[in-house]
Amino acid sequence: MSLPPGFLDELRARVPLSRVIGRRVTWDLRRSNQAKGDWWAPCPFHHEKTASFHVDDQKGFYYCFGCHVKGDALTFLREAEGLGFMEAVAAMASEAGMAMPERTPEARQQADRRGQLYEVMEAAVRWFRLQLQTGPAGPARDYLTARGLDGEASECFGLGFAPGARRALTEAMLAKGIKAELLAEAGLTIQPDDGGAPYDRFRDRIIFPIRDAQGRAIALGGRAMDPNARAKYLNSPETPLFDKGRNLYNLGPARAAVGKGQPLLVAEGYMDVIALVRAGFEGAVAPLGTAITGDQLRLMWRVSPEPVIALDGDAAGLRAALRLVDLALPLTGPGQALRFAMLPPGLDPDDLIRREGAGAMRQVIESARPLVDLLWQRETEGRVLDSPERRAALDHALRAAVQQIPDPATRSHTEAELNARKRALFAPLPREAAGAPRNSGTRRRGAPAAPAPARAETRASVLVASDEGERLLEGLILAICARHPDLVHGLEGRLERLDPSDPPRAALLHDLLSGRESPAGRAALDALLDDPHLRTAPPLQGGAGPDLAGPVLQNALDKLEARRAARAELVRAEAEMSGLVDEGLTWRVAQLAQAREAADRPQWNDTADLGEDSEALSAHLSSLLEDEVWRKKRT
């Protein structure tokens, strides 16, 4: 259906964005400016206590500084309420008192047909529920009771029973005046290829109604009572109402629970979801008979920024988790993460809860692992990494995986985490363990003895232990950005990688990136401007403009990144040279570090390089390595 020009603009003008969103949030009235249409609230898309969700009525847009969701009123209705585009338009039109444009005959016919299918599905669900109370459903009731589901649980989830007769549902629906073609279009009956009479798709099965985000029945799932049935679980086929790759079981109630602070849990099947909900984990959903799809991932992220994937603790569950890694990597980013809760071997959520209680399930959820853990496990488990070629193959596989991540900051942090794990994996073994196999088979039995750790004198050298130069550069970068906020634009990715370890500085960085001001960030800035090494810097003086501050900021970022990269390489080199160090190397490295530290002191009159002769230092270090100063010279 097409809308006339200007209709959406008129709609947005009549309905303030704050009125649409206000039904789902609690405004922070101390921070909001109602007169100007400037509103703040805790974000409805992720769990938080602070008001980082901003609504601007004048511009008609919202933005969360925490999870970075953004959009207008229609976007909010689609993302938060699960409405389709035209449904969102109709909801806003009703709110504004505007009549929807006349539909074309084809659009009216399609809408009417969908309405009829919804009615057919609801009629079938009611009939199946009645059948669960009949005599033939006795084994089904016994099965549900054995699984811990009483009448209250069956009522809550609308469970039913499909009799074994070939046309039981068909005859009942025809008797109600429902046309046979509607039953077939809704996926309730099957038309034989030989042209015979249609028969019921679901027979001798426990019925699980599948509903959309608005609570409308769109499909059915059936669990076979016959242990010899060809399919233990059977779902409705694709219909005008049902796309199994774009829906989730229990989505509507789970979304409401997540809005109240519950985690979004993704289990494998209907019984797992029901067990989780009855154990108090009301934000549980499940895919519908297939592996999780990209559309389902996006649907989950509309509900929660970090769903927890609770997979069965068997080989199939682990394989499903590892497959999901490849699907999720090109989609992940801020506000779109995953965690994996791996259950004990041989148990699914239903088994674990019935055997050990809700507390055991809670522990599994709380120990859920991030996606990077699964990626690392997939690429290293069972691999022997005892040669440069095999390690290079690992590097290539990890690099290819990380390059799929579209968000630069997420990609950078993931790469840093994997590099740290590689350094730990490839670090030399202690001498006494030289003959033992390495983790993941990386060191063969009988390999040459590993060198002893570096001496304390070397570890205490200025080059290894001192980070004052980096702290000074970090402070300079933050102070310049605070004094010249226009320079932040375009450098967000590099600034995010600063990752200050000092909490006040981290708060200041968050303020700079979000355009806010917090007490902790203000205190950090005051401390930087009082620093005797920084307060005389020309870029921080009152008359300094971006023409001066910009080049200094860029150079400081280059220097800090280079220093951190060099430090990482030195740590690796130290590990490789452990046990081969003598006092000569210790003294030379200390002298080199002292010279570098002196060279690193800011020379504000030399903004092009801040006073460091990088080529000379690089040449000096190269000469030390070429001379193999750590080896004893023969006399």
What is the overall pLDDT average?
81
Please tally the β strands and state the result: 15
Question: How many separate domains?
Answer: 4
Q: Give the overall shape.
A: globular
- Helical element count? 27
- Taking all Cα atoms into account, the compactness measure Rg is 32 Å
Assembly annotation: single chain
Structural class: alpha+beta
Subunit structure: Monomer. Interacts with DnaB.
Catalytic activity: ssDNA + n NTP = ssDNA/pppN(pN)n-1 hybrid + (n-1) diphosphate
GO molecular function: DNA binding; DNA-directed RNA polymerase activity; zinc ion binding
GO biological process, one term: DNA replication, synthesis of primer
Quickly describe the structure.
This protein is an alpha+beta fold. It has four domains: 7-96, Alpha-Beta Complex (DNA Primase, Chain A); 108-242, DNA primase DNAg catalytic core, N-terminal domain, CATH 3.90.980.10; 246-379, Dna Topoisomerase Vi A Subunit, Chain: A, domain 2 (3-Layer(aba) Sandwich), CATH 3.40.1360.10; 462-626.
Please provide a written account of the structure:
The strands form four sheets. A five-stranded mixed sheet has the order 12-11-13-14-15, sandwiched between helices. Strand 13, helix 13 and strand 14 form a beta-alpha-beta unit. The longest helix is centred in the C-terminal third of the chain and has 31 residues, at 546-576. Helix 14 packs across helix 15. The protein is built from 27 helices and 15 strands. The chain has four domains: 7-96, DNA Primase, Chain A; 108-242, DNA primase, catalytic core, N-terminal domain (DNA primase DNAg catalytic core, N-terminal domain, Alpha-Beta Complex), CATH 3.90.980.10; 246-379, Dna Topoisomerase Vi A Subunit, Chain: A, domain 2, CATH 3.40.1360.10; 462-626. 49% of the residues lie in helices and 9% in strands. Residues 431-466, 578-584, 601-614 and 628-633 have low confidence and may be disordered. The protein has 635 residues and is an alpha+beta fold.
